[in-house]
Amino acid sequence: MPTTRLRPEPGNQPSNRIDGRLDAVVHSGFAVLMVASAVRYVMRHSPADNLWTVALAIAVCALYAVTAVLAHRQPRRGRQQLWIPWMVALVAAWAALVVVAPSFAWCSFAIFFLTRTAFRGWSGYVAGGATAAATAVGLFRMSDWTDIAMLLGPLAAGALLTLIYDKIERDAALQRRLFDDVTLAQEQLAAKQREAGIATERERVSREIHDTVTQGLASSLLLLEAAQRSWPAETAHDDVRKATDLLRRNLADTRSLVHELSAPGLETGPLPEALEHAARQYVDNINVQVTGEPQPLPSEVRHALLRVTQSAAANIKLHAHANHASVTVGYLPDAVTLDVFDDGRGFDPAAVPPPSANGGYGLRAMRQRVEQLGGELSVESSPGEGTIIAAQFPLTRPADPENAPKEAR
After folding, report:
1. Which residues have C-beta within 8 Å of that of residue 193, sequence separation ≥ 6?
2. At what angle do helices 215-230 and 299-315 cross, to 10 degrees?
């Protein structure tokens, strides 16, 4: 079962990591352009002009730094109320600086992106528009109010950047929604997988209980009822002894099931002896035969063979009233087969009632065991003609469960 994936923290989302890298690039660009613009301005103007302009540039840098720090530390919700005074002061100082000293116009890009990060809605458009307008006025002034391109260029660039930024924001919002949807789908899938695992484990435990405890208790009850009818004859003592032995084995099977231990002799003992031991718990005169060349089997196949044999033998004891019964294990090159035959009274497989509190789980549990391992189970019987339960397990389990052979119900 795949492990459950928890919903990631918002700070771990890919879009937030990309935003962080973009912010770092924008802030670094602002610092480099401010230094370059200041050097250009100082070299082209007299010290008297430099003093107030450099002081204003330092104020812009300080306001920018405070706003950038708040942008990094504060969550998106409620940031607009917190940043209004800082951003208003930054835009006003920047407008004054770029009008007085158009050399700093190149820093407008960083100011524009910072205003769009700080504000949402109409306030973001106003702040970005004010930045573009101040830049346009400064450059137009630098051209002695003659070059119309200096006026229209920043305005057109501001409009273009606004459209691009809006597109980026819409894409980022869509990405966040998709990320949340995928995360929610993963959580739902993990929950369904847990539920499926619980259901599978319940089915497995119910089959184990049916094939061991339930069948044993039913057979013990028959033996004790027979002993009660024939008491105090010698056969009654034999029935009581058999019932006692069967109950002891049921107790051992129950403890094994509780502690998730395998059935006695299944893992290390020869398979024919293990099957004979399991079958003779219910039918004393049953015969076990082997055809083909014996070969090692996967533990889950051995376990299924044992449980199917137990369940089939218990059904013979409880329902068949057979004189003879046999178990045949066949080894094929790529499969192993199991046939359990009895000459009892038989039944109509199509008329078997559904499982209920009175029983009816045997054939269903056998079929589930076999099909879980990619095998096939068939039941051949008719009233008065005996019964054959045949199972076949592939020795190479299909990689895709959908491609496993399935018997027509």
Report:
1. 1, 2
2. 30
CB 379 within 8 A of CB 350: no
Q: Where are the alpha helices (DSSP H) in 316-378?
A: 362-372
Q: Nearest to residue 64, comparing CAs of 97, 40, 100, 39? A: 97
Q: What is the pTM of this model?
A: 0.41
Indicate if the alpha-carbon torsion angle 116, 119, 124, 126 is positive or negative.
negative
Name the strand (E) or helix (H) holding 252. Answer: helix 234-258
Amino acid at 104: F
For the segment 224-245, what is each residue's pLDDT rounded down to a tens digit?
A: 777 777 777 767 777 777 777 7
Closest CA to 340 of 317, 356, 361, 358: 317
In DSSP notation, 182-209 reads HHHHHHHHHHHHHHHHHHHHHHHHHHHH
Catalogue the E-assigned strands of 225-293: 287-291
List helix spans (H) across 280-382: 299-315, 362-372
